[in-house]
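Please fill in the sequence for the structure shown.

STRUCTURE ENCODING:
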């Protein structure tokens, strides 16, 4: 079991390295293997979802769809520019966002600044309808300077695609912009030190809806101490913006994907978000039809 886990971790690490290399090469489109999608829970897949069955994901036969520009945002020219300026590749071409990212890159307002590899200001559409806010960078994010690019990020990407969107169409950020050592949750004083950056980003981005991913995001942004299990699915407000709290993708992954009810709850929350911005979830192709 442990050996299998080690093998799996090594394989995931290799795959991530390969994806990072592809990204550097400017690859923006990857084909998803339908066999892998077939094994995934419905919220991950692009296939049929029929909520009448208690275990519909066992039956569905997802159809092949390319993962449109989903892994990374930004054009290769903006990445080259960013490199020339010695800024993180995440630095937006939007001047106001880039200016925030520059201040973040130089920030030492809390102890997380001492141990980070790169700052992770967040990235995406400078005028998004939907903004996702997570907790803080993990190992992969710390290495790449991009929010949600590790395992949780891949799940978030699938959710975004399932919503009929791409990562480029939304903005993805975090409560803290530097990785807490060992992936611990950020401490209250770290969140307080970093929050002004997020507040500035939100004021600039003016999203219609913010999706708070997990309890830390809710605590950080809304100062709401209620558990995520109670709060999820219930609309909140941040400075006039509608906020939907839902489970963090890592929480779904940690459960080993066993608790499928949680997956459905997240999907319900995301459907509510789509409705709020005047969108419908894209129709799902049926294998029967
Ligand atoms: Fe600054 Fe935020 Fe990093 Fe702390 S976590 S050093 S406040 S950017
Ligand atoms: N988890 C988060 O909360 N944020 C990230 O950017 C990655 C993982």
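FILLED IN BY: designer on duty
SEQUENCE:
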């Amino acid at each position: 079991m442990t050996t299998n886990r080690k093998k799996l971790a090594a394989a995931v690490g290799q795959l991530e390295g390969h994806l990072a290399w592809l990204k550097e090469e400017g690859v923006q489109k990857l084909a998803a293997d339908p066999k892998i999608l077939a094994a995934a829970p419905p919220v991950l897949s692009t296939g049929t979802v029929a909520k009448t069955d208690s275990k519909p994901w066992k039956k569905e036969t997802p159809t092949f769809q390319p993962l449109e520009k989903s892994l990374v945002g930004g054009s290769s020219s903006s990445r080259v520019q960013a490199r020339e300026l010695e800024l993180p590749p995440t630095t937006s071409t939007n001047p106001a966002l880039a200016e925030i990212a520059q201040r973040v890159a130089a920030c030492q307002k809390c102890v997380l600044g001492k141990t980070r590899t790169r700052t992770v200001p967040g990235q995406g559409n400078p005028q998004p309808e939907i903004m996702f806010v997570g907790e803080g960078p993990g190992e992969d994010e710390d290495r790449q300077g991009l929010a949600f690019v590790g395992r949780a990020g891949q799940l978030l990407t699938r959710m975004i695609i399932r919503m009929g969107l791409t990562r480029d169409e939304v903005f993805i950020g975090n409560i803290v912009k530097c990785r807490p050592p060992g992936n611990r949750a950020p401490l209250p004083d770290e969140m307080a030190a970093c929050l002004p950056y997020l507040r500035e980003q939100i004021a600039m981005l003016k999203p219609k809806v913010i999706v708070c991913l997990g309890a830390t995001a809710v605590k950080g942004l809304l100062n709401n101490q209620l558990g995520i299990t109670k709060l999820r699915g219930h609309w909140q407000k941040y400075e006039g913006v509608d906020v939907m709290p839902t489970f963090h993708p890592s929480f779904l992954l940690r459960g080993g994907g066993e608790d499928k009810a949680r997956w459905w709850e997240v999907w319900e929350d995301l459907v509510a978000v789509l409705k709020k911005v005047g969108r419908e979830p894209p129709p799902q192709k049926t294998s029967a039809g």
